[in-house]
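Severity: low
Component: inverse-folding endpoint
Summary: output formatting inconsistent between runs
Steps to reproduce: submit the following structure tokens with default settings.
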């Protein structure tokens, strides 16, 4: 299972071929999204048609909702990293989701997460 960050989903929805290929390689059955990512995607829509496209895409994926353990871990991350690395609340919640579920995080914004101790970032293996 791989947790996809919002930026990855935006690239997928925009039709980025590399992102589409990577997500197809992972397989829809192995992709999860944080409910924070869903909120960020919905917040950024331009119209109802775009919202429908997003809803159709995400309904095929597992959604990991915020629970008490994720919330507590996010609070710890904010305490530890908000001043030193400018960790934002949505990224803390997404990072906490990845940590609590013990799954890799697929993001293009590596600088936003690389400092989080114990967080594993997804790295696509190069094909031979």
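Observed output (run 2 of 3):
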């Amino acid at each position: 299972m791989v947790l996809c960050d919002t930026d990855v989903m935006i690239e997928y929805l925009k039709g980025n071929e590399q992102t589409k290929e990577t997500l197809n390689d992972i397989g829809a059955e192995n992709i999860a999204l944080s409910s924070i990512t869903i909120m960020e995607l919905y917040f950024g829509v331009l119209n109802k048609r775009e919202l429908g496209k997003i809803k159709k895409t995400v309904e095929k994926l597992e959604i990991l909702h915020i629970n008490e353990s994720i919330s507590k871990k996010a609070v710890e991350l904010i305490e530890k990293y908000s001043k030193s690395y400018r960790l934002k609340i949505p990224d803390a919640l997404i990072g906490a989701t990845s940590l609590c579920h013990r799954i890799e995080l697929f993001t293009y914004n590596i600088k936003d997460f690389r400092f989080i101790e114990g967080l594993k970032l997804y790295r696509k293996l190069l094909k031979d």
